[in-house]
């Protein structure tokens, strides 16, 4: 069953109960970050549907009061075995809330607590338009379109048809630059990421899941707009910044921060969505495709960095090895 049909069934089931008024995206780590565009989309485009993005553990212990018959919960776990996400799905079901589960492993423990299960494309050569982030975003677009109506629905579908080609061409374009980045930053103990807008989750994921988890490099994700309210004080000629320059409505926010970095910093790696061709997607929806572009070109950098540091991306000290 497609996400479009899943949402259609849920919306129909809630017609006599007051309709869909709330949607909650719930996950941990990379899956949490993957839901950022969906959250940003509903925040910006909806007038009657509210949205929440929750870490699964927090959702369990501090669930929203509106978690009830007018809500939808969408959870994600790559292997479907994240304990707190499973508990979050079970909690939602106990409140009579339909749960949509996004998972790559469809015979996982999570599935038992989901009313609907949707798999996604993953791995080398994956279809970007069918990956986890965009499946989450599609759910948001369908919820809005089928409840309030969405004027740019066709523009969004057009964007979906283009994103795969954009991403793979961008990866080719960045291959030499990524190798140079790895050589330059291989010995650094800290690398900050920066971003804003609907694509912020990609930079957050790069910070916590790659630099910190997979490379043991200290990192933090700094919002470009928040940069001038504290973080810019650490700018100097030696501090590395990995800068995500989005296309769309938040570009001016990024540009202000980048101009400052170029004036007072020296070690700045800029990945620019405009340079990478995202502008072929229509302005009405371009904001929501930044994440999928950045999240899928970062691995070009990450593989180069892991290789030159002789620190495989699969190396862990604690994850899956100790009790936590």
CATH architecture of the largest domain: 3-Layer(aba) Sandwich
Going by CATH, the homologous superfamily of the largest domain would be Glucose-6-phosphate isomerase like protein, domain 1
What summary fits the major beta sheet?
5 strands, parallel
**In the residues, how many domains can be counted?**
2
Assess the beta-strand content as a share of residues. 5-15%
Global outline: globular
Mean pLDDT: 97
Helix content: 40-55%
CATH class of the largest domain: Alpha Beta
Amino-to-carboxy terminus distance: 36 Å
Structural category is alpha/beta
- Poorly predicted regions are none
Q: What is the string of SSEs from the N terminus onward?
A: HEHHEHEHEEHHEHEEHEH
Oligomer: single chain
Widest sheet: strand order?
A: 2-1-3-4-5
Q: Using only CA atoms, what is the Rg?
A: 20 Å
Question: How would you briefly describe this protein structure?
Answer:
This protein has helices at 3-13, 29-34, 36-45, 56-61, 83-94, 132-147, 153-185, 200-214, 251-264, 290-309; strands at residues 22-27, 50-55, 71-76, 99-102, 116-118, 192-195, 221-223, 241-245, 268-272. With 324 residues, the protein is α/β, with parallel strands linked by helices.
């Amino acid at each position: 069953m497609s996400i479009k049909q899943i949402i259609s069934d849920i919306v129909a089931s809630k017609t006599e109960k007051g309709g869909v008024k709330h949607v909650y995206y719930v996950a941990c780590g990379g899956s949490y970050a993957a839901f950022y565009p969906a959250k940003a989309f509903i925040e910006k485009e909806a007038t009657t549907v509210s949205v929440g993005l929750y870490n699964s553990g927090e959702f369990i212990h501090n669930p929203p009061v509106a978690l009830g018959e007018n809500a939808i919960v969408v959870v994600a776990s790559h292997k479907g075995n994240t304990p707190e996400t499973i508990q979050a799905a079970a909690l939602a079901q106990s409140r009579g809330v339909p749960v949509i589960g996004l998972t790559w492993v469809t015979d996982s423990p999570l599935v038992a607590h989901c009313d609907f299960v949707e798999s996604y494309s993953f791995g080398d050569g994956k279809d970007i338009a069918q990956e986890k982030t965009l499946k989450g975003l599609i759910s948001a677009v369908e919820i809005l379109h089928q409840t309030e109506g969405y004027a740019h629905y066709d523009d969004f579908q057009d964007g979906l048809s283009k994103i795969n080609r954009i991403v793979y061409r961008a990866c080719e374009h960045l291959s030499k630059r990524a190798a140079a980045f790895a050589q330059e930053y291989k010995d650094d103990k800290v690398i900050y990421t920066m971003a804003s807008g609907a694509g912020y989750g990609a930079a957050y994921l790069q910070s916590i899941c790659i630099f910190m988890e997979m490379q043991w490099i200290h990192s933090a994700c700094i919002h470009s707009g928040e940069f001038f309210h504290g973080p810019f004080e650490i700018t100097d000629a030696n501090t590395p910044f990995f800068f995500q320059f989005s296309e769309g409505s938040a570009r001016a926010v990024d540009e202000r921060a980048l101009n400052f970095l170029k004036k007072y910093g020296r070690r700045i790696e800029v990945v620019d969505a405009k340079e990478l061709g995202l502008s072929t997607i229509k302005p009405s929806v371009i904001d929501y495709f930044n994440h999928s572009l950045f999240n899928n070109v970062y691995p070009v950098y990450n593989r180069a960095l892991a290789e030159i540091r002789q620190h495989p991306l699969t190396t862990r000290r604690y994850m899956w090895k100790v009790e936590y």
